[in-house]
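Exercise 7. Given the components listed, write out the predicted structure of the assembled complex. Treat all entries as one system.
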Amino acid sequence: MTVFNLSKIAVKAMARNKMRTFLTMLGIIIGVTSVITMLAIGQGSKQSIQEQISSMGANMIMVHPGSDMRGGVRMDPSSMKSLTLDDLSAIRRYAAQLSALSPMVSSGGQVIAGGSNWPTTIQGVGEDFLMIRKMEVAEGVMFTDYEVKRAAKVCLLGQTVAENLFPDVEDVVGQTVRFKNIPLKVIGVLAAKGQNTFGQDQDDVILAPYTTIQKRIMAITHIQSIYASAESEGVSEQAEKEITMALRASHSLADDEEDDFNVRSQQELINTFSSTSEMLTLLLGAIAGISLLVGGIGIMNIMFVSVTERTREIGLRLAVGGRGRDILSQFLMEAVIVSVGGGLFGVLLGLALAYGMGNMLDWPVVVTNQSIVISFVVCAVVGIFFGWYPARKAAGLDPIEALRYE
Amino acid sequence: MENKIIRIASLEREFSVGIETIHALKGVSFDVLEGEFVTIMGASGSGKSTLLNILGALDRPSAGDYLLDGTNVGTLTKDQLAGIRNRKIGFVFQSFNLLARTSALENVELPLMYNAKVSPRERREMACQALETVGLADRMGHAPNQLSGGQQQRVAIARALVNDPVMVLADEATGNLDSKTTLDIMGLFQKLNSEGKTIVFVTHENEIAEYSNRTIVLKDGEIVKDYTNQGRQAILD
Ligand SMILES: Nc1ncnc2c1ncn2[C@@H]1O[C@H](COP(=O)(O)OP(=O)(O)OP(=O)(O)O)[C@@H](O)[C@H]1O
Ligand SMILES: [Mg+2]
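Answer.
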């Protein structure tokens, strides 16, 4: 018998009992719909985390004081004084793979302009910082190395700060703000960046030369952290190693001593968060997979009932010349059509649900081709797997007994 | 010499039920010539259906030989038996056995679906022709529940004819029909026979046997009579 005849027989047999066919499909439809939707949500969150972390900087490497302590008390890293400007020079000298380097000191407090004031963070950085963090100047200019050397009383405002301090002022550049009683001239406004992955407003910030913050505001000589950009993603790891070596040398650490600083790259951050959301995806997928399995068992159940119910039909088919394997193929085909057809509906429904939910709840969703292909293949496998046993039972029937069956 | 469609010799069939063995057929021998219309008669339990099932390649004998159109059926595998049923035999059942919610035409096409050599177009043509032969050309699209009992049996007969079998086997084919419809159906069998089809018809009614040209009577699995009907009744359609 040809495959064409076979599918025709199977389709006709199914069309003869549309309700049963639909109910059998329903389990698979629900299973696949949930697989597609869950994976879309999982993938969506993964991708949006990756995008947001990437937007935080350009192949960024961050150095913070403190060690990766396993057990024991951990100090607040910002109060540690282990990073210095000498460390910065050491890195500049030894780490060849860096395209940008900037120290950072930051201080929180109230910023005042005329009658209004606003609580924010002021970050003291070098000229390279904009490039490292992928920030842009919307109005005015960035301070230069010269202004850094002079510890010039200048600053750039983030959008949020500018809006709250100068709600009615057209031209913010040229105004003066006061932070801890130090007047700072506004020489630029940063372009908006929005919220980051953790829900922080990245525009609620003021940038000033680090020297200004160190000397005039905080009265410290150490720095709190170091930011750098690797020349490319590929050399990021190498650059990290060089920075570590430079710092170990500069801190004169013996071989058996642990690092008293912490080097982390943006890539690591992406990997950490990706693996978390991958776990989430896996978990969601597994839950959805179970419902697909239940759908498969539904197929088997209804197929079993159907084999008994259709015993006379099977007897007749055998009597007019159907061979055992024809009957087997017919029932398998029916199972596969039900599961793959249910899979098709499920994919469509899953797409609709994923995008619909994404739109309504403003969730990021990503439907990968992979998840569609996988659900489809799983459907076919489920159909064959759960259809096999009932089909075998049907094929093994004795024609005379099947015909006589009441 | 006339062509022998069926040759059976010392055919036996035993059934084991628990520790008991039932001898349903105890050494049956006879030949059926091409173009004969044979009825098999006998009391209930005499082995008629058992014999017909073996003749129809639905079952295999426990002992003895069965040659169908020159093929020794006793030595065939299950799949080969299915092939024999598909190409050489047409079966008509007491309870019609039509597929529900399926048109007469598609019901008749069924045996050809299991024959890869027949194209869809040929299949349709052959099924139409078979339905015309049984006088149901105007009922092709009707499902079984839209047909009378007699019409349903005609569809079943068309299905038995569609593969142009060497013989048509019927087991109590009129058992579910009233006497008027029974007459119609027997007339149809006679017409098919007159066109050259070999027919073996199982019944336990004497009157029906009178429409055939030969009657074999079974009793407890053995042939007790085998005679030619001299005064064969003809039904004129
Ligand atoms: N599958 C089976 N298992 C056991 N015994 C069987 C089986 N089939 C038939 N028999 C026995 O074989 C004998 C002949 O049965 P068969 O069905 O051939 O009778 P029959 O002549 O067709 O009767 P009826 O006129 O009632 O249809 C009976 O005694 C029956 O009980
Ligand atoms: Mg019987």
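Discussion: Chain A has two domains: 3-52+272-404, 81-259. The pocket of adenosine-5'-triphosphate (ligand 1) is lined by residues B 15, 17, 22, 24, 42, 44-50, 204 (CB under 6 Å).
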